[in-house]
């Protein structure tokens, strides 16, 4: 009887009604197989592993790897439909949440190499071919990520509001300013406060770099967030760090103290996350998925 977690070539049958959705690459272990049991992913589809065909004994010492997959409707996920669906923010949010929950569920049990949202192949056979072609690269990257997690570190500058009164026209002042001059003076005070905040942010960024370098093995710098993503504050640093799991408490404690004495700046530390920012670069054109978006490259 065949193992559903290790499909044979006979099971890699093409089904025109379905596409193969790939969430991640994992070491093909008992822990990974346990992690996907009863797990549901995109569109409520069951999650399984698509493993390699075992090489002849002694031929290849590379640990086996597997794709984490679901079968999804080709009507919903074919290339033409996806172009339209990616403009539907509600649908996109649902897919992103389901994708992320699968990846995080596995990350709690074993090493996971996340792939980009909507990584799709025409069928299991095409996915299996891609897995086999890239198995050495996948195994090497999984080795890099083993026993490590991603942590996000963001640095924000607070708003510098216009003070209601300056030293010249505040309570107890002997001088009287016209409304126009008082406003200009408050604007100058606001500008001065803003400059102080930027100076403190630069100092905080240097401290973060010095502290994180003691713990992280890799770093990825993302563009600062803008608009609604950043909120009322200004995001000036948006880094991701790959940190060994046995060092995370020390890492967090050290970063919590970075900006304690600096006015107008805030450091936000989030994690642990599956290592999205340290995933694979896109495959070569000959290995690219049949439909959808290629695996994600290093982002953080």
Structure description:
The protein is an alpha+beta fold. The chain has two domains: 139 residues, no CATH class; 124 residues, Multidrug efflux transporter AcrB pore domain (Alpha-Beta Plaits), CATH 3.30.70.1440. The chain contains eight helices and nine strands. It has a five-stranded antiparallel β-sheet with strand order 2-3-1-4-9, sandwiched between helices. The longest helix has 34 residues. It is elongated, with a radius of gyration of 25 Å. 32% of the residues are buried. The N terminus and C terminus are likely disordered.
- Main pleated sheet: 5 strands, antiparallel
What is the SS-derived class?
Answer: alpha+beta
* Residue runs with pLDDT of under 50 for 5 or more positions: 1-12, 166-174, 282-300
Q: How many domains is the backbone divided into?
A: 2
């Amino acid at each position: 009887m065949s193992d559903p977690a290790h499909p044979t070539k006979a099971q890699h049958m093409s089904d025109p009604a379905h596409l193969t959705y790939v969430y991640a690459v994992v070491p093909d272990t008992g822990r990974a197989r346990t992690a996907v049991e009863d797990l549901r992913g995109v569109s409520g589809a069951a999650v399984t592993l698509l493993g390699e065909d075992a090489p002849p004994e002694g031929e290849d010492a590379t640990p086996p790897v597997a794709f984490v997959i679901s079968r999804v409707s080709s009507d919903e996920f074919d290339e033409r439909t996806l172009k339209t669906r990616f403009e539907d923010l509600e649908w996109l949010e649902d897919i992103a949440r389901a994708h992320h929950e699968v990846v995080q569920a596995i990350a709690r049990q074993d090493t996971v190499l996340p792939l980009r949202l909507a990584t799709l192949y025409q069928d299991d056979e095409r996915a299996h071919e891609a897995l086999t072609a890239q198995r050495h690269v996948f195994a090497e990257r999984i080795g890099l990520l083993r026993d490590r997690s991603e942590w996000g570190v963001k640095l924000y500058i607070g708003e510098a509001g216009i003070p209601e009164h300056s030293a010249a026209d505040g309570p107890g002042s002997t001088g009287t300013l016209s409304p126009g001059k008082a406003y200009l003076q408050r604007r100058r005070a606001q500008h001065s406060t803003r400059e102080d905040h930027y100076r403190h942010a630069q100092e905080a960024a240097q401290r973060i770099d010095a502290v994180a370098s003691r713990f992280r093995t890799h770093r990825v710098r993302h563009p600062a967030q803008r608009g609604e993503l950043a909120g009322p504050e200004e995001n000036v640093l948006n880094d991701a760090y790959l940190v060994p799991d046995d060092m995370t408490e020390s890492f967090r404690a050290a970063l919590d103290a970075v900006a304690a004495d600096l006015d107008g700046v805030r450091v936000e530390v989030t994690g642990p996350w599956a290592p999205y920012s340290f995933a694979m670069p896109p495959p070569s054109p000959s290995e690219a998925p049949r439909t959808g978006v290629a695996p994600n490259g290093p982002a953080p």
